[in-house]
Amino acid sequence: MASAYGSYNEDNVFYLGSLDGKVNRSLFHGSSNIAYANGYLLYVVDKALMARPFDPVKLDFTGDAVAVAEGVQYDPLFSEAVFSVSANGVLAYQTGNASSTRNTTLFERNGKQIPNAGTGLGEPFYFPHFSPDGKRLAYHIVDVHNGKADIWIQEVASGSRIRLTVDPARSMRPVWSRDGAQVAYYSTRSGKPVVYVKAANGMAVEQKVWEPNLAAWANDWTLDSKALILQERSPSTGKWRLLLLRLDGKGTPTPLLETPGANVTEAQLAPDGRWIAYQSDESGKDEVYVSPFPEPVGRLQISVAGGTQPRWRRDGKELFYLAPDGNLMAAELKEAQALLQPTSLRPLFETKAVPGTFDSFDVTPDGKEFLVNVVATEETPSPLSLVQNWTAELKK
User: Fold this and answer.
1) Sheet harboring 254-257: ordered strands across?
2) DSSP helix/strand/coil, 354
3) Contact 271/340 with Cβ under 8 angstroms?
C-alpha cells in the first residue's frame, strides 16, 4: 500500500508478488486487508465485502467483483476490515463500526473531569506529552482520510498551538527534552520509522539522529538533554529493547536494556536520573518495572496483575501506570539505603482509556492532573456472521 501503515488513501494499491521475486505487479487500487480462498480474492470497498474470481495459476482475474456482504466493520486509520475466510468454504465477518469515537480529557486525581473550555482540548490527540514545566503539550494528530500525521505544540492555558511538522507521511510520538527546548519524534517518510529532533518553537530545521534497521522511536531524554533513550526492534530477535543514543553525532546507539524472549518498551527516566521505569512482557503479560540507571542491574516490579505506560511525578515519589482494567494506578515510592521500595499501590480512577493503545495518558509534573484519551461513545458490537459454503450463491 502507498501510505504509511496502510491508512486509507485513494492512491493505495494491491500488489501481486512471488517469493522468488519474478512476479511483482499491481492488481488494482484498494485500501483494505485482502484474502484468497476458493478461487476468489476478498477485500472491502466502502464497507462492502467484495469477492472477485481469481486464477492462482494464471495470476489474473477471471471475472468481475460481486458484493458478498454490506456494512462490514472497517477502520480507515489502518485500512482494516473485520472478515476472515477459510479454504473449506467458511466465511466470517462483522458489521457495524470498527472503532469508537475518542477524545482527550483532563481529570483530577479523584476522576473528576476538568472543563476544557478555552483550552482546545477535547479532539483526539495521540501520544500527548506535557512539557517539563507543564505549560505546553506535544502530540500528533492523524488524518484518517489520508493517513498523514503531524506533531503539534500547544499552550495549555490558552489553547494556542503551532504545527511543528509538515510531513508527507507521518511524524509521530513526540517526546520533550528535559529542558523543554526540543522535541524528539519519528517519521515514516522513508518507509520506516526514523528518529528526528527539532526545536520546540519550530524555528530550526529538524535533525535526523537515527535510522534503525527495522523500527525505533524515542521514549525519553537524559537529564542533560544530550542523549535519547530509544525503543528499538532488535534485527536479530524481533523483540523490542532499549538503547541509549548520544546526540553529539559521534556514535551509534549503545545497548541499555534487553530481555531475552521479551519486549522491553515505554521507558521513562526518573526525575533525578537514577532510576528508569519501563514495561516488559517477560512474565507473559506487560508489567511495570523500575531498574537503576544508567546501569539497569536488577529490577523492582511495581505493577500487580499487569501494567503499562509508566509516568513519574516530578519529585520521583510517585509512579503512575494503567492497569489492564483501565484503572489509573498510583504507586508511592521511597528510597532507603540506595534501594527504591513501593510503600503503597492504589487505583485513582477508572479512565475509560482507549484499549490496546500506548498513547493513552500523561500526567502533569505535580501529579495532580491527568490527560487521558478516552472512549467517548460506547457501542454494542454486532455479532459475527458465519456463512458456510459462501461461494454457492456466487455460482448460481
Assistant:
1) 216-221, 227-233, 240-246, 254-257
2) coil
3) no
Asked whether 139 and 163 are in contact (CB, 8 A), the reply is no
- CATH fold label, 102-375: Neuraminidase (2.120.10)
Tell me how far apart the alpha carbons of residues 86 and 78 are, in angstroms, rounded to a whole number: 23
* Angstrom distances, CA of residue 261 to CA of 212, 244, 284: 20, 20, 10
Centroid of chain to Cα 235? 20
Buried b (16+ CB within 10 A) or exposed e, 283-305: eeebbbbbbbbeebeebbebbee
Give residue-wise pLDDT tens across range 188-215.
Answer: 888 788 999 999 999 999 999 999 988 9
CA distances from 100 to 150, 151, 173 (A): 22, 23, 21
Residue type, 56: P
Cβ atoms < 10 Å from Cβ of 182: 19
| Residues 217-268 pLDDT 10s | 999 999 999 999 999 999 999 999 999 999 988 778 999 999 999 999 999 9
Buried b (16+ CB within 10 A) or exposed e, 77-88: bbbbbbbebeee
Q: Report how far residue 129's alpha carbon sits from residue 125's, in angstroms, rounded to the nearest whole number.
A: 10
Domain ranges of the chain: 4-98+379-395, 102-375
The pair phi, psi for residue 6, each rounded to 5°, is 75, 25
Location of C-alpha cell 481529570: 107
Predicted model pTM = 0.79
Cis peptide before 294 (omega within 30 of 0): yes
The SS3 assignment for 4 reads helix
Kind of pairing between the strands at 227-233 and 275-280: unpaired
What is 113-181 written as a DSSP string? EEP-TTTTBTB--EEEEE-TTSSEEEEEEE-TTT--EEEEEEETTT--EEE----SSBEEEEEE-TTSS
